[in-house]
Amino acid sequence: xxxxxxxxEAALFASARPLTVEELATLDPQAGxxxxxxxxxxxxxxxxxxxxxVELIEIAQGWQFLTRRDYAEAIDRAQFALRPRRLSPAAxxxxxIIAYRQPVGRLEVDEIRxxxxxxxIEKLGERGLVEIVxxxxxxxxxxxxxxxxxxxxxxxxxxxxxxxRLEELSVALRPPAPAEPE
Amino acid sequence: MSAxxxxxxxxxxGFVVELEQFSGPLDLLLHLIREDEVDITDLPxxxxxxxxxxxxxxxxxxxxxxxxxxxxxxxxxKAQMLLPxxxxxxxxxxPRAELVRRLLEYQQIRELVEWLGxxxxxxxxxxxxxxxxxxxxxxxAPLVIDLNDLLAAAERVIALIPEPVLHRxxxxxxxxxxxxxxxxALLAERAAFGWGDVVGARPSIVDVLSAxxxxxxxxxxxSLHVHQEGPFAPIEIRRESxxxxx
Lengths: 182, 246
Known about the structure:
CATH superfamily of the largest domain in chain A: Winged helix-like DNA-binding domain superfamily/Winged helix DNA-binding domain
CATH topology of the largest domain in chain A: Arc Repressor Mutant, subunit A
Number of helices of chain A: 8
Oligomer: heterodimer
Helix content of chain A: 40-55%
CATH architecture of the largest domain in chain A: Orthogonal Bundle
Order of helices and strands of chain B: HHHHHHHEHHEEH
Order of helices and strands of chain A: HHHEEHHEHHEEH
Largest sheet of chain B: 3 strands, antiparallel
Number of strands of chain A: 5
Distance between the termini of chain B: 74 Å
């Protein structure tokens, strides 16, 4: 394995969160982004083909070592690590709306869900899954929310493009049904 | 798409509606539409409105404003559908259109919820390095006392009771009026005095309770000011005249 790959392996081991290519490139001023990407691929293949309990995953716009799925139950049972708390349906609804409509204000979320979502948004903010990204135009310049890298991380997504496209859903959002006087 | 497990809500404190299995009025409406197997774009509004009202009264959701708002909306649409319209009126707009649009939109969100839930569950099968569990919600600030304080306080209370009355049930109504008069007399006499002055040296439990209620009542009325340095510290009673002091 090339020295840069080994250095990156060490850095990823030391970090508790995914590291981006740009962050990893700061490890070695001589190495450019392309070299880092090459080293990451080499590292991923080495862990994929060798006998390892962890694998290198591209996640949340970065890279991270994660334990293999096969060991989840044993690790969980031994309580060496805790699975994150499951999100409530209300939280997932709100996350879905914010993910697809971002930047989006609270009123729009309320409107789509049909219920007041202020408390849910606040909780999602506390968990670091959404954040205020800007302020909207109009009355009171409402706060607009967007998703965070943490959101991608808990879903295991590389980036927002990995979310299903709306057209792929069985219920595509159609324009208002045309009025049909019988 | 993977089979959605109906996600059990674990973290729903404060979400009344959540506890009732539906995450909102739109969710409930979709549930009814699915049960009736009716076409969402040609909603039998009268039927759905009646069912909606029946469910929210049955589930005791009357307190939820969001549900009531939807109920009102449904009834309005139901009424609008009954209005006569001229034959061949091109201007006629289906009063259900807006609701149907919202329902379709919401249905899409529900589908995304299943997708997101499945993705999160799959991600939860892998652990990263240094995963630290989310900090538990801080408990409400406790009363800071130690065991000795508590025991000493209990002992003081027990010592004040002449004899424990355990099995005899004796009708001894609290004499709050008497205690109030006693405290008012003390107030007239002195600007400040202590709890001991109110109840005397060896009060009965009834005396203690009467005096305490009288004290709280007078404090509420603003006739006096009750002060205690810390837990179990002596209670000091003062005439309520803070403005005169300035």
